[in-house]
Structure formats: C-alpha cells, structure tokens
Design goal:
The complex is a heterodimer. Helices cover 68% and strands 0% of the residues of chain A. Chain A has one domain: ACP-like (Non-ribosomal Peptide Synthetase Peptidyl Carrier Protein, Chain A, Orthogonal Bundle), CATH 1.10.1200.10. The mean pLDDT of chain A is 86. Chain A is mainly alpha-helical. In chain A, helix 1 packs across helix 3. Chain B has 2 domains: 237 residues, Thiolase/Chalcone synthase (Peroxisomal Thiolase, Chain A, domain 1, 3-Layer(aba) Sandwich); 150 residues, Peroxisomal Thiolase, Chain A, domain 1. Helix content of chain B is 33%, strand content 19%. In chain B, a hairpin with a 2-residue loop joins strand 1 and strand 2. In chain B, helix 2 packs parallel to helix 5 and helix 9 packs across helix 10. The longest helix of chain B is centred in the N-terminal third of the chain and has 17 residues. The relative contact order of chain B is 0.18. The N terminus of chain B is likely disordered. Classes of the chains: A mainly alpha, B alpha/beta. Chains A and B meet through helix 3 of A and loops of B.
Chain lengths: 91, 418
C-alpha cells in the first residue's frame, strides 16, 4: 500500500467520525455505498460538517461542483479528501 | 377608506422616482452604467480592523462624506444602512418631483427592507465593549434597530402612515416594494416610500458568511460553469410609489408601472432553495400582473452564483416560463457587478431592471466562462444586448425559503413604451 493510499484511508476514517458527530448519525450508516439521501443530512448539517473539517484540517472547502454533485458517501469522501490533500500541498 | 375605484385592488401603481447607493457609488445612474457595461465593483476588502478570514473581496460602497448629504443633527442616529437609505430616498423623491413636505400626512407609508439593520453599529459596539470595556454609544439602540431606516425617512418627509421594516433576508427589499404596491392598490395609502438597505460588510458578518461556504474566493460567475459562490455587497435602493392616476394628475411622467408581485415560502430548508417555492413565486407574479410568460422580455435573476441557487432558479424559470420560452428569455444576474447586497439586493436589482426597461438594453452576466447544462437559460454572457423590453422581472430568493418576485412594465404612451 502506498503512502498516499494510507493517507487517504486515514482521512476517510477521520472524516467519517466528523460526519457522524456533526450530522448526529450512527457511524455504521456511513458506508461507501450509502447514498447521501439515506444519511438524511440537511443542508445545515453539511455546513456544520464542513466547518468541523475546516477546523480539524485547517483547510477551506468551498461548496463547488464535486461536493454538490456527490450522490453517495464514496464520491463525497473522494471530493473532500481531494480538497484536503490539495490544500495540504499548498501549505 | 377613500378610493375612487369601483373595485378594491384595481388601482394601478407606478414608480415615480428611484435612488440608489451601491458599490458603484451614489446614484441609480452609476449603478446602471456599471451593470450595463459589465464593470465589476467588487474590490479588495476594506475593513477598519484587520480581517483574519479567507475571503478578502467585497462590493463595498466607496468612501463618501455622509455629512454632505445628511444634516448634523440626524447623522449621529444614522448607521450606514440608514445613511444609504436617506441618500437613496432623497434621490428618489427628487426624481419623483416631490419636495420634503409634498407627501406629508397619514396617507403615506414607509416600508424599508433590511436583512439585519445596523450591523456596523452592533459589530463595532460589541467589539469595543468586549475587548476594551468601552460602553456602547448611547445612541446604539436607535441606530441599530432595523426600523431606524423607515422611521428616519418618515421624520424627513413627515409621513404618518404605516411605517415599518421588512426583515426577510435577501427578499426584504422586494417584499417591501410588493407590500407598498398592495397597500396603494387597495386604497390603504396614496403614496409609499419603499426599498431596502444593508451595510453588513464588516468583520464579524463576513466571517459568519464564510462559514456557510457560499462566498467565492475568486470571481462570482452566475449560471456559468466553474462558479463557486457569491461576493458580499451593500447599499440601498429607494422607490416612490403612487397611483398612475395621481402621477398623471400632477403632470409627472413615472419611470414605469409596478405591475406584479408574487411571494411564497418554501417551508422546507433554512438555506437550500426549493424548486416548487421558487417557481410558484414567479408564476404568482405573472398572474398578479396579468401577463403571460412571453410578455416578460428580461429577467434580472437572483443568480447568486452558488451551485444550488442557479440550478434551482434556472429550473424554476423553465417551469414558470415554459420549456421553450424559458430557454429564450434573456436572464442575467448583475450580482458580479454590485455584489449580493442582501436586504438591499432586490432593490438594487429592480433599479437595474427599470433602467434596462427604459433604455431597452439587457445588462450582461459577467465573468461567464461557458454554459452549465444544468442552467439551460440564456444568461446574456458577458456582453450587454439591445432588446425590446415591454416588461421585466426581478427575482429575490432568501434564506429561510422566502421568495419574492416583482414585475415592472412600461406605461402605455410613455416615451420608452414599446
């Protein structure tokens, strides 16, 4: 396993915890195949989740296309991890 | 209630004058020129104290000397949002041909929309109080209350009728106009001073807006691919409303008719717009004006350049205007020029829609890169366009899900009528 893959997996777990805590949902519901709809996250939950991620990872995550279009946890995670890694490179 | 009409609600309401304060400066004309020529007024952020956030741009009103426009005994009571209101109102009254006392009395209403009210007074007062233990300015309360704007105008022009502010976030100004129109239509009042004002571009507020992730760190590009949010703006816009009959009786040529108003609530989500709610407000405004979709020749969109608004608004226009005409009617967002002025937004944008109607020019949506297939409207990319406009629509959709749509129409027989 490459370092990047390991880093991504670590981020996946960390983000999952944030989503569960801020979205007030059971962490076991957050599987890659789960649809965003099935998590029953409201727009304000998303704002709270992104704010927590911003503080945890010290990055700004704008609500642009990739994030908005994510239909399942996998694509949402990919968009978030992508943002965080890109921002880390800049720092 | 005295009314010369046989049926209540039949009186035609006109806009006799308008005024504006925006990032383009003082006056409705500089605002229109900037919108028409596509010259963005979004600049590097100017704050009194250092700003630690990530977004460092905004459409702020250029520095001006308020004492040149507002009397020394009134000024200490005027937060910037009230200053903008007073300056815009004086311009509007002058254009309407009214002197200070001309509409005095109980038959004149004053309704001004604002999202927050005196935010600068609140932010500055709390900063000094919490960090330095300095007591807030003794005039803080009368300065910061949202009703400071309409009551200051009421005192200025001796208006004794219904006077209040409308607080419906980004629909505040549009709802203020709609309410004033309804009051005149139904004979509750004869004149109304209406509009909106906002002065929220200050540290605490910008930081809070950043948290919602709706601000772009780059360029605001409504309806375009690659958009990622809006830029904050500020300002004020004021309009003088009366009946067509009264304007004609005093020999005044109004700017246009305020012909339709539709307002609905989504009742769904605090920040996400809803297609049903947005589309229904557009349809209601058309019905209220007695117009068909094809009668509207220009739409000044809410067009915030957030991912969600622009898709929902485009879908709503297609639903309300029809799949064919909805794709053809020119729809532009002028927010990349004057920023999102929140409670003043609907007012600034209506002023632009009125100028578009009178000059027969559709202002462009600037910073447009390429069409987003999910926004299948004609966004008038980057270049203004001469266009035959008999009626124009202005959309405002607010947080909380409050939608407000206004329609203005050329008056038959007027120089600009088509």
């Amino acid at each position: 396993m490459t370092d990047t893959q390991q880093e991504k997996e670590k981020l996946f777990e960390e983000i999952k915890e944030v989503i569960a805590k801020e979205g007030m949902i059971d962490v076991d519901k957050i599987t890659p195949d789960a649809t965003i709809e099935s998590l029953d996250l409201k727009s304000v939950d998303i704002v709270m989740i992104l704010t927590a991620l911003e503080e945890k990872f010290n990055v700004y995550i704008p609500m642009d296309g990739n994030l908005q279009e994510a239909k399942d946890v996998k694509s949402l995670m990919e968009a978030l991890i992508d943002h965080i890694l890109k921002e880390r490179e800049k720092q | 209630m005295a009314s010369s009409q046989a049926r209540p609600g039949d009186r035609r309401v006109v806009i006799s004058g308008m005024g504006a304060v925006s990032a383009a400066g003082l006056g409705a004309e500089p605002l229109w020129r900037a919108a028409r020529d596509g010259v963005s007024q979004i600049r590097e952020l100017r704050t009194e104290r250092p700003y630690d956030g990530r977004i460092k741009i905004a459409a702020q009103v250029p520095k001006f000397d308020p004492a040149a426009h507002i009397e020394a005994n009134i000024l200490p009571l005027c937060d910037p949002f009230t200053q903008f209101t007073v300056i815009a109102a004086d311009e509007a009254m002058a254009q309407a041909g009214f002197k200070r006392e001309d509409i005095a009395g109980p038959r004149a209403a004053v309704i001004i929309g604002t999202g927050i009210g005196g935010m600068e007074t609140i932010d500055n007062g709390l900063f000094h109080y919490y960090t330095e233990g300095v007591r807030p300015d003794p005039l803080s309360v009368p300065r910061l209350i949202p009703s400071a704007a309409p009551t200051t105008l009421g005192m200025r022009y001796s208006c004794l009728g219904p006077t209040f502010s409308v607080g419906s976030a980004c629909s505040s100004a549009s709802q203020a106009l709609g309410l004033g129109m309804q009051m005149i239509r139904f004979g509750l009042v004869e004149k109304a001073i209406v509009g909106g004002a906002e002065a929220c571009v200050i540290n605490g507020t910008i930081r809070a807006w950043e948290g919602l992730r709706v601000l772009t760190p780059g360029l605001c590009r409504p309806f375009s691919k690659g958009r990622n949010g809006m830029s904050l703006g500020e300002g004020g816009a004021v309009f003088i409303l009366e009946t067509l009959e009264s304007a004609r009786a005093r020999g005044h040529e109004p700017l246009c008719e305020l012909a339709g108003y539709g307002t609905t609530a989504d009742a769904k989500d605090p920040v996400r717009p809803d297609l049903d709610g947005v589309a229904s407000s557009i349809t209601l405004a058309l019905e209220d004006a007695g117009l068909k979709p094809e009668d509207i020749h220009y739409v000044n969109a809410h067009g915030t350049a957030t991912h969600a608004n622009d898709i929902t608004e485009s879908q709503a226009i297609l639903r309300a205007f029809g799949e064919d005409y909805g794709r053809r009617v020119p729809v532009s967002s002028t927010k990349p020029v004057h920023g999102h002025a929140l409670g003043a937004g609907g007012g600034l944008e209506l002023a632009i829609a009125i100028a578009a109607l009178r000059e027969q020019i559709v202002p462009p949506t600037i910073n447009f890169l390429e069409p987003d297939p999910r926004c299948p409207i004609d966004a008038v990319p980057n270049e203004a366009r001469p266009h035959k406009i008999a009626a124009a629509m202005s959309n405002s959709f607010a947080f909380g899900g409050i939608n407000a749509v206004l329609i203005v129409r050329a008056i038959e027989g007027a120089a600009h009528a088509v």
